[in-house]
Design a protein that fits this description.
This is Probable alcohol dehydrogenase AdhA. This protein is of the alpha/beta class and 341 residues long. It has two domains: 166 residues, Medium-chain alcohol dehydrogenases, catalytic domain (Quinone Oxidoreductase, Chain A, domain 1, Alpha-Beta Complex); 126 residues, Rossmann fold (3-Layer(aba) Sandwich), CATH 3.40.50.720. The protein is built from nine helices and 17 strands.
Length: 341
């Protein structure tokens, strides 16, 4: 496999116009004990990668290789790994380490572990030919999907599933989705499969058209009122000014879950209009491995339509620039040279 590989590093975090992402010749990583070495075939381009590149999230690893929606094949295994074989398809997601002993880990809330570590932020990710992952945090992938389709499932899909779960959607209820990118277009399909009536509120006309094609009951501008009160809502757009908009659209007892890791400032809320009558506002923080396994099992049973926009691995900077400018419909995915479909 050679001693070096092409990859992308966040050299100087800042707006995409300043070129924070630089291509470089990097050493091929060695899998440590308990790790897999993965030859990357596809890597989704997530808005969290954009937050890492632009400095919205603080630097955890200088010069980090972004990317945490990685699909590839096991190229080698570190000492002590069992249950994985060279050549198997494998998924690498955002969460890559928890302590396993704190009170949150013991309670099944490992997403809140103070010692949690993340792919593409604390450790190098998938914007390169090879990446490593602790075997205990690697995922077996459902059949019937190509690698490019699978990549967005590993963050956009998993975090959307958790956001939907935390939105406490009643059976056959009315769900509002604010923003309609990679995560939202997958979550909407899950909700519709559960019998929900889904109303999409997003600024891009192309995204509204996609929402209607996927079965949404309505699609309108992000700051518009839905056609009926909502039982639950999920905010995917990282726009704090939409929080009071979504809260005001909730019926009594409704819940708004905020799915992003980063959000611009939330305006002052009016208690009577936005929170009274037992409306709930809650954040979504990463995910547990159980979330990932449960969602991927659901994706294996319910064939999801995964709308992707492919880019060659050598165009990662362009993909992130397009994402920042809202020029991507569905999910952007980097495809490695010579990778299988």
């Amino acid at each position: 496999m050679g001693a070096t590989m092409d990859g992308w590093r966040v050299e100087r975090p800042g707006p995409m116009a300043t070129g924070p992402l630089r291509r470089a010749e990097l050493p091929v990583p060695e899998p440590a004990a308990g790790e897999l070495l993965v030859e990357v075939s596809a890597c989704g381009v997530c808005r969290t990668d954009l937050h890492v590149a632009e400095g919205d999230l603080p630097v955890h690893r200088p010069g980090v290789v972004p990317g945490h929606e990685v699909v590839g094949r096991v190229a080698a295994t570190g000492d002590g790994v069992s249950g994985w074989s060279t050549g198997e398809r494998v998924g690498v997601a955002w969460l890559r380490h928890t302590c396993g002993v704190c009170r949150w880990c013991r309670a099944g809330a490992e997403n809140l572990c103070p010692e949690s570590r993340y792919t593409g932020w604390d450790a190098d990710g998938g914007y390169a030919r090879f990446a490593t992952v602790p075997a205990d945090f690697a995922y077996r992938m459902p059949e019937w999907y190509g690698d490019a389709e699978l990549a967005p499932l590993l963050c956009a899909g998993i975090i959307g599933y958790r956001a939907l779960r935390l939105a406490e959607l009643p059976e056959g209820a009315r769900l509002g989705i604010y923003g309609f990118g990679a995560s939202a277009h997958l979550t909407a399909q899950l909700a519709i499969a559960q019998g929900a009536r889904v109303h999409v509120l997003t600024r891009a006309e192309s995204a509204r058209e996609l929402a209607l094609r996927l079965g949404a009951a309505s699609a309108g501008p992000a700051d518009a009122a839905p056609p009926e009160p909502l039982d639950s809502a999920i905010l995917f757009a990282p726009v704090g000014t939409l929080v009071p908009v979504a809260l005001a659209a909730l019926d009594r007892g409704g819940t708004l879950s905020v799915a992003g890791i980063h959000l611009t400032d939330i305006p002052v809320l009016n208690y009577q209009r936005h929170l009274f009558e037992e409306r709930t506002l809650r954040s979504v923080t990463a995910n547990t491995r159980d979330d990932g396994r449960t969602f991927l099992a659901l994706a294996g049973r319910h064939r999801l339509t995964v709308r992707t926009t492919p880019y060659p691995m050598g165009a990662a900077d362009r993909a992130l620039t397009d994402l920042a400018a809202d020029r991507v419909t569905g999910a952007a995915v980097l495809i490695a040279d010579g990778a299988p479909g």
